[in-house]
TrEMBL record, chain A:
InterPro entries the record matches: DUF1468
Name the UniProt record assigns to this protein: TctB protein
Entries under Pfam families matching the protein: TctB (PF07331)
Domain DUF1468, residue spans: 6-137
TrEMBL record, chain B:
Leader sequence residues: none
Keyword Coiled coil carried by entry: no
Superkingdom field: Bacteria
Provenance organism: Oceanicola granulosus (strain ATCC BAA-861 / DSM 15982 / KCTC 12143 / HTCC2516)
Transmembrane segments: 20-39, 45-71, 111-134, 140-160, 172-188, 208-225, 263-285, 324-348, 360-380, 392-412, 419-447, 467-493
Pfam families found in the cross-reference section: TctA
Protein name as it appears in the record: Tricarboxylate transport protein TctA, putative
Keyword Membrane: yes
Amino acid sequence: MSDRVFGGIGLALAIFYAWAAAGIQESFLTDEVGPKVFPWIIATVLGLSSLWCLLKPDPNPDWPSLGRLAEIGLAALVLAAYAEALPVFGFLLPTAIASGYLTWRLGSKPLESVVIGVLTALGIYLIFRSLLGLSLPREGVELAIDRFFSALGDTFDGSGDAAEPTTAPSGD
Amino acid sequence: MDLLANLGDGFLIAMTWQNLLLALMGCFLGTIMGALPGLGPSNGVAILIPLAFTLGLGPTPSLILLTSVYYGAMYGGRISSILLNIPGDEPAMMTCLDGYPMAQKGRAGEALALSGIASFVGAFFATWGLVLLAPQLVRVALLFGPAEYFALFTLAFATLGGIAATNQAKSAFAAALGLGLAMIGVDTQTGVPRLTFGEVHLYDGIDFLIAIVGLFALSEVFVFIEHRGTTRDISTKAPPAIGRIVPSWSLIRSCIPTMGRTTVLGFIAGVLPGAGASLGSFISYSMEKRLVDKEKTFGTGDPRGVAAPEAGNNAAAGGALVPMLALGVPGSGTTAVLLAVLLALNITPGPLLFTQNPDVVWGLIAALFIGNVMLLAMNIPMVGLFTRVLLIPPRILMPVVAMISFVGIYGISGSPFELLMMVGFGLMGWVLRKLDVPLVPVILGTLLGNEMEVNFRRAVEISNGDYGVLVGSPLAIGLWTVALVGFVLPILVGGRIKRRMHMSRDEEGALSD
């Protein structure tokens, strides 16, 4: 049954894809094949393989219970919200919340989850931003951490120590 | 002798402090990732690509880092196979058969060390195979025109599921899905936007890194949420004691012929399209079983049964690099991810790579040798440390994996749109996995889609619109034939082989439990 649904959706997708490809605007200067042919070939393969699944379905996989399914959806929603929150709230707070939520849903106790969430966020920030200098979204807390490390870097530079300049993020 | 000079240059490139450090880091991280259940070589390399990219490493250092991770993960996969009877990745499945019984007899340390040595032998000689074979293949590849390349890409897709593929319709669906995703964005030939539906973010196309990280790493997180608290939850097993770590010389000597044979077999399996490391370790094990198992000790903790699949799968991993570097067509999932590394660094693999970027190729090959030695040196004394990694419960690990995926993709895109897309790919990956649709063709499709179309259009363009050119040369016809056979054969015999692979595992697993 699952495969029949899957095949049906695939078939609809293939038809939609072919239709969307037909709507590609061709420029006046085009090559022999043009931009539409290859997408049509793809749509054909997509359609044929979906049709096969529709007609000769495999046995059903074990789907999780409805509650579990909802939980997976919820986890995806949390991650989506996390993606939206990153540029607004900086890195640490959203990351702590998102990873805390995930570890809770993977079986940590509530209080444990808070600690794991905070430590995960801090650890990733320290390694990837403070040590490796990756660009991450920053607000109040993050900027304070960066200032601390750049001050630390300056002290080392001031004392004539050969501190690597790349490890200290510029405190812009 | 040209070869040795090239190799020497490669060593000069690889032997800088930075590169050695990266190789060491990569081997270490890779072993950990391979050892952790749920984080195989593909996942491991996938979440690290965006990071290497945003750290601003040059092409050679990034490649060295990521191939070290790849080799390290191949080594690490055996650790959980032996200690927990859970393969860290699919190629390590056969190592469970004799590795776990050995561990139960209190010989876990010996099994780990022996498999480490077997991995080294397999990988070391396979790298030599790569050195010797790849340049030859390059010479052949120079005969390829656009039509032949188009046929070759088709061949790669047709055989990707491998001989043990269960449902070719689903492999074809996955490939078409990936190719379809690659079409999104501005058409490189005529400059018109395709399938973007007016969304400006899509004009540049979908970055394949987003697809890879979403499909591989994030979907794994969803799988773990699904399996929490059920019998398939892996966090409940405790690893057994290690025992003595250094195997006796007589034990190693008894395995030398086994390692020799399976290295050759594994390498060939790796080079051939559609076989890959899983089949490499499977046929290595079954051949050895037939050849030397006179007392019927295979499956009950025979050391040769540990050495055979490990040498086979690591040799296959090296062999799989041959078509990837020389033709630009990967033969397995992990090499597809490595291809993504090259493309992300703006390096087009293929015959020209050897003439245009010899520093990259030979530096990489030298790095493989260095990584191998490092892995051997690291694995035997430090195996106790790596086994402790297995104690990290997935409930802590998986959120970290998810967050690092976000960090990497945020680093290259900096916008929530790409992150949302990644979450979407994660969900899609979970659904596809449930339905038994392979993910590797999707990845390969997004990677190769544009290149494939360009060759298709160029071939027809050159012949003034005659589509017959696609089957216009003996070489092209040959490639199409192999593609067709490779696609149809698994439909006829695939089920039987897959069953046998699982049967031998179940049967012998049952004996040991």
